[in-house]
Amino acid sequence: MMIVPFPAGGATDVIARIIAERMRGPLGQPIIIENIGGADGSLGVGRTARARPDGYTICLGIDANFVLNSAFYSLPYDVLNDFEPVLPLATGPIVLVGRKSMSAESLSELIAWLKAHPNQASAGMNTLAFRLVAMRFRNQTGTQFIIVPYRAAGSLVGDLVAGQIDLVFGTLTTHLPLVRAGRYKMYAVGGETRTPLAPDVPTFTEMKLPAITNSNWYGLFAPKGTPKDIINKLSVAAVEALAHPTTRSRLAEVGFEPFPREWQTPERLGALQKADAEKWWPIIKEMGLKAE
To answer: Are 232 and 224 in contact (CB under 8 A)?
Structure first.
């Protein structure tokens, strides 16, 4: 069973289903996806922590679940010590999108409008990680807007299309189809370089916002105590899945970039976790950001 700590249909669910489908070959059995949403993913991750460490329960989570939540919540598990890293899978950039009727056509125009109309715009966020990005954006641009928390990306997308909210920080995977359909605008994308899926959209770095360079990473984890030979078997199966041309094509179509082959090890995922904890936990504490 592969636990996805978010409702079905979101970016994490999409990558889980792509990877699980291709892992069934090398593992010799299908992988059932179980979506366990709630508390910014901590409910599903907690279920993983309590599972029997026999290799039959794994979790496909993101940096928010396995790093950031520890700074937001008092958790009944230790994100760095209660899991066995299996493999870092891919990254996916964050994006800033806005309702179709917003008068601003570019990020520069949007920032100018927000400065001229403090707290007159609302921005939806379906995870605390995106609230962190939004607050850093406000601090770096000197703007003010209302942050509206959501439980799931689906309802947030519906409200943005309907014009009930003005802006959203979210994943490229979630929002690209609606941007392409002309339902709303994309102002900027995270990451160090522009995405080939939206080559006309600038990065935050290009727009002189170096603090907003975020890309989410996605990885596989197992409960603490899962034997090393089982971790290796799962890792090999995931590496094989990522190497398959169909998998790579499907991931690229929805905005994911697999990690380089040399990064696809349990050790690299553990190191990525620790590095992000050292980076983000002090920032979150300094900003005083708490769960609502």
So the answer is: no
Q: What is the DSSP letter of 204?
A: T
Other CB atoms closer than 10 Å to residue 47's CB: what's the count? 17
Which amino acid, one-letter code, is at 231? Answer: I
Give 114's strand partners. none
Structure confidence at residue 14 as a pLDDT band (50, 70, 90): very high
φ/ψ of 273, rounded to 5, equals -55, -55
Based on its alpha-carbon atoms, the radius of gyration of the chain, rounded to whole angstroms, reads 19
DSSP letters spanning 109-164: HHHHHHHHSTT--EEEESSHHHHHHHHHHHHHHT---EEEE-S-HHHHHHHHHHTS
Distances (CA, A) of 269 to 63, 89, 238, 275, 276: 10, 9, 13, 10, 11
Residue of 9 and 60 predicted with greater confidence: 60
pLDDT, residue 290, reads 73
User: What are the backbone angles phi and psi of residue 181, rounded to the nearest 5°?
Assistant: -80, 0
Tokens of 254: 């929805």
The pLDDT tens digits for 71-102 are 988 999 999 999 999 999 999 999 999 999 99
Residue 147, CB-side half-sphere exposure with 13 Å CA sphere: 21
The structure's pTM equals 0.91
Beta-carbon neighbour count of residue 211 at 10 Å?
14
Burial of 192 (0-12, 13-18, 19+ CB in 10 A): exposed
Helix (H) or strand (E) holding 278: helix 266-287
Q: Which helix (DSSP H) or strand (DSSP E) does residue 189 occupy?
A: strand 184-189
Q: What is the DSSP string of 33-54?
A: EEE---GGGHHHHHHHHHS-SS
